[in-house]
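Your task:
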Amino acid sequence: MECLEDAYHEVCSVFTRLCPRLVPSPLWGVSLASLARADPDAICGVVYGSVNSDCTAIVKEFRKWWFSLPRDQCSVCGSQASEVDEDWRYCIEANTGIAVLERLVPLCEKCHLAKHLGYASVHGKGREALEHLTRVNGVDIETAKRATRRAFEVHMTLSRIEKWRIVLKGVTGLPKNVMEVIEDILNFMANNGYSFDGYWLWYHTRREHEELLERRAIEESEEFLRRALGMHDKPLNEVVNAVKEDPLARLTVVRELEEMLGRYGIKVLQRETEIALRGVRVVNAGFEPGKSRQTLDILTTSGKWMVFAPSKLRGIILRRVMDELRKRDLDYIAKTVGVEESDRDEQPVIIYVPSFLAANMVKEVAEVMLRVLEEFRVDKLVMFKPDTFTYAGIYSDTAKGMKPYIYMTSLRLKLSAMDVLET
């Protein structure tokens, strides 16, 4: 399969030597370079949902090949190369995006930055990248600006495409069976919400579903606070101010959380939860054009369930949890360590929830995690940490006199709660 017409053909007719084909956002973190740095157990577990020794062996063979590629002379300007760049072509056929890898080329640091103009712009190096594009392509700055504006327009169009087909065409030196598996991995990631970002292997649901879950969680949280405090008719900022300023109000909220979550084997830590409650804020948000209303700030309510799972199982557990959550329309954001760390027998599997005050959503996600852990005979403590603790640098080795989480559960705690309910 090939792209009959490159989506960036107009841009590349201006930038004839070095063309910034911006990577569509659904393909961010889905690349050969990212895969070469991945832990084979983690990515193969995610893709195949089980231990797959053939896949791990192939990823290891691919990694060895990738780091053996020459990085000597930049193919554009002739200076010392530092990167192997993936030269992709993008097109749209019948509402499906096609990404074809045409070739791998060595690039120097400056040419690589200019090629990835979007990355350069985000990191405050857009002007530097643009000026380099003008030099190596021999065009004036105004012509370059017009072409880059067009590049960003094309990027926006491509980024709206949800379904993608990745084709590895211009790759030589790898056996056919290795190429096929690597292509399958990239296609699975692109079409199922998985991507690499440095240290982490991420899962993200579709943007519209992410927004729906966030709204559901925030609405549940607001209703919960009003009900717990008996402030149904008060403005939201008054409700939140009561929680922040009145110790008795905070204790009331904590007791209500204990009642709601405790029946499912989730223990609420009073002091830590009160600290999290003091960090909750209200913002004005627009849900309709020209209209806004007070709502909870999701940056102060979001958090994540975490469990330290056996390293070799973490990818499989992440995949199983997200598959089960997707059946319940609860798949949101998740991650595990994506790189190989030979000295770690356990690695975190982290499942995000939009609000620690959305008790129903919090307990449903915990129940799915415990069910999957039981399937793999992993009896470990599962902890819920609010993102405000992470922003404040509160970790197990820095939290003095407190826990770095507000809720905890386990298979044993769940069984104990079930026994209590039955009696």
